[in-house]
Amino acid sequence: KQQSDFSGLLKLSRDYYINELQGRLQFNSQSTFSTEFYTNEELVIYRRHLPMRYFQSLLGFSLDKTFFTVFNFQFQDEIQYRYYWQSTEEFPNYWRNHIYLCGNFFGLALSRVSLLYDWEKKQHPTAHDYDYDDQRWGIQFYHSWGWHSNTTLWIQHRQMDYSSLVPDSTYHNDFRQESLFLTMRQNLGGALIAKLNAEFDWRFYKLSNSFTPNFQYYRLEPMLVYEFNSQFSLGCGMLYEMKKYQYERENVNFGLEPEDYHIYGLVIDIDYFNLKGIILSVSHTFSLTRYPGSPTGNIPGLSLYTDRNENNTMLYFSWQALKSVEINLVAHYDNDRDVEIEHNDSRSSLFTLDVAYKF
Fold it and tell me: What residues does each domain of the chain span?
């Protein structure tokens, strides 16, 4: 069976214009095999910064094959080229190749084990210092315990290699990273659901120094969610985030090196959607950021790493107004207060309204 889909997209805003053409050609053989060829051609023009305007072309191929209902193989390859009207060191032209491989093994009792490989190579014809190879190997375990109850554990190894012969210790520095991601969802009875999202990272640089020191990063976000119905839910949870660097303090550039920190917070999420094409998501986070070992807080006027209290609100709204018209709204408000230095607070807001027309 053959299916094709071609569409155009036009976005207009105060800051930019986007013209986009998309095409997909898919071949299916029953329910066990499918291939797809796709393309995405994009032209972006920024009204206030003309040198940033660019043309981008992406060609892709994907394959999905299932063997005897117990094993599934997925392959995807993308080639992308971006051309700037006025290529500079800050905005260089580039080629990008991305390959993704995944093997899924299906077991008993709604279980799945996945082996994953992700490779991305980026090359800049006139800025070779930005070239890199990014490889990721992973294994993922999934198990469903019943209605609204499941656990996903993902272990990943990442290797980042820059092509530059002389690593730039302030930015381009080869590293390897070990990561663990955990997602849990447990039905507590009725409409109440417990969720947990956790991330643990350990990064090791080839040339660790005060600008790019090795570090460990932890993030935990437990939450209780009450589902009023299949369309509307309210969640309330906590946030803990920690980043700890490893370097000898007597060998650092005082005041410039990153500092360890802890973040404690409360999170409220509201989600709503309906079959008429309306999606609404609101999230508010109140957090306390603390730098327990930072020496910069004792220096008057120096505020690189001072303790802060922050209120952050994010709103997303999407409406499929007509078959060919889609409206997207994104609003973000951030109120950041310094608890150590007066007159060092900051507030920022962002509002984006996109009206997309598909033809």
Answer: 259-359
194 touches 205 (CB < 8 A): no
Average pLDDT over residues 304-317: 92
Q: Return all residues near 94 (Cβ < 8 A) that are at least 6 apart.
A: 81, 82, 122, 123, 124, 125, 130
Q: State the Cα–Cα distance between residues 149 and 225, nearest whole angstrom.
A: 13
pTM confidence score? 0.86
Amino acid at 2: Q
3-state secondary structure the chain: CEEEEEEEEEEECCCEEEEEEEEEEEEEECCCEEEEEEEEEEEEEECCCHHHCEEEEEEEEEEEEEECCCEEEEEEEEEEEEEECCCCCCCCCEEEEEEEEEEEEECCCCEEEEEEEEEEEEECCCCHHHCEEEEEEEEEEEEEEECCEEEEEEEEEEEEEECCCCCCCCCCCCEEEEEEEEEEEEEEECCEEEEEEEEEEEEEECCCCCCCCEEEEEEEEEEEEEECCCCEEEEEEEEEEEEEEECCHHHCCCCCCCCCEEEEEEEEEEEEECCCCEEEEEEEEEEEEECCCCCHHHCCCCCCCCCEEEEEEEEEEEECCCCCEEEEEEEEEEEEEECCCCCCCEEEEEEEEEEEEEC
Q: For the segment 256-283, what is each residue's pLDDT rounded down to a tens digit?
A: 678 899 999 999 999 999 988 899 999 9
- φ/ψ of 51, rounded to 5, equals -60, -20
Angle, CA of 71, 181 and 178, to the nearest 5°: 100
Give the torsion sign (CA, 73, 101, 138, 31): negative
Distance CA 330, CA 353 (A): 7
